């Protein structure tokens, strides 16, 4: 039986005067396929209710530990936040932004977890690893 998650994900990316809005939209959609995108003056906003595709990308890029650390460090109440490098996202790569925002700005993501608790959702999106391999409780049960 699979768990049903209730989350609200808000994504914002600035559009600099030197940028083409469609490229910023592409950057967001490369990282978060299927999001609902709205274009606003100087900014692109998107929403979704799932990070399944994003989680798959984290697994493929083998950056679960970095993602998990970022999510848990920014967790406040039922919400965690993170930033992604916009130029890397346009190229189809996941790179967490640290420090001051890049010259063209970063993709800012806010995740509010309604159900279950935020820690359980972080475990789902970016599970803990052992020697770089995700630890999945279901797999452990199957081995018994």
TrEMBL record:
Residues 118-144 are annotated as: Disordered. It holds the Pfam family RNA_binding. Belongs to the UPF0201 family. This is UPF0201 protein ACFQHK_12945. It comes from Halomarina ordinaria.
């Amino acid at each position: 039986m699979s768990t049903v998650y209730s989350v609200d994900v808000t994504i914002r990316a600035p559009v600099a005067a030197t940028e083409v809005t469609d490229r910023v939209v592409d950057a967001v959609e490369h990282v978060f396929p299927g999001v609902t995108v709205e274009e606003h003056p100087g900014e692109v906003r998107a929403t979704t209710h799932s990070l399944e595709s994003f989680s798959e990308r984290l697994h493929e890029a083998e950056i679960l530990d970095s993602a998990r650390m970022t999510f848990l460090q920014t967790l406040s109440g039922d919400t965690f936040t993170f930033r992604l490098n916009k130029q890397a996202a346009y190229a189809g790569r996941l790179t967490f932004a640290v420090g001051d925002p890049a010259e063209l700005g970063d993709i800012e993501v806010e995740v509010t977890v309604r159900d279950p608790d935020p820690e359980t959702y972080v475990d789902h999106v970016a599970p803990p690893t052992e020697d770089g391999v995700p630890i999945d409780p279901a797999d452990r049960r199957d081995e018994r």
